[in-house]
Design goal:
It comes from Tenacibaculum caenipelagi. By secondary structure, the protein is an alpha+beta fold. Helices cover about 15% and strands about 25% of the residues. Strand 6 and strand 7 form a beta hairpin. Residues about 225-235 have low confidence and may be disordered.
Length: about 240
Amino acid sequence: MIDFLKNISKVPLHVINTNISFDEYIPISIVASNKDLVFDVSSSKEWEAYLESFFLKHKKKVAFGGYLEQRDIYSRSEHFNKLSEENQRNIHLGIDLWCDADTDVLAVLDGEIHSFKNNTNYGDYGPTIILKHSIEGNEFYSLYGHLSLESLKNLEVGTKFRQGEKIGTLGDSSVNGDYATHLHFQLIIDIEDYYGDYPGVSSKKTLDFYKQNCPNPNLLLKLPNETLIEGLSKTR
């Protein structure tokens, strides 16, 4: 499946507004060991201020990365935080694209709506859409989390979308689980029994399974300078 996903496209694929050039993307790391994160990581407002400064400094519009990053940000929520270190869910299974609220979110490939849901736990996805893809006999799923509430209006399971077609917009911190605005984009091989939701963060104990079931989204996105991101090349 890894080789299949890698070879679906030879060029980078968009999951947000195509008017934003890939030249305006920049890698970002929010691993726990990043010494630049000298603020309260539990505060969405402080994240927004940090990202605004980051974009101004680098003259970019989208910051991306995060696959297999071990992060401190999830410790603020009981939804992720368990008593033992082994069971604490803090290893990120998707790629985040940090940018402005209301940015268009696009279907990465031809697909149909598998499910959708507003995941309202503190620190959760908020509004979420999952697409099902069937290509050359291979079935897999793409998850789009932290959307706007409007993104879930008038949706129906089975509705088909073409590659690059708008499926929603990004939500702000008031609806997206209390994060600075971003898209959580994740690939899933076996959706199991989930509906409108799927774990986007793993514990050390379950990581081997999730690394296999949730391969690197950059196999499709092919975002620039990916080797600068901790974890992005580990599943190649």
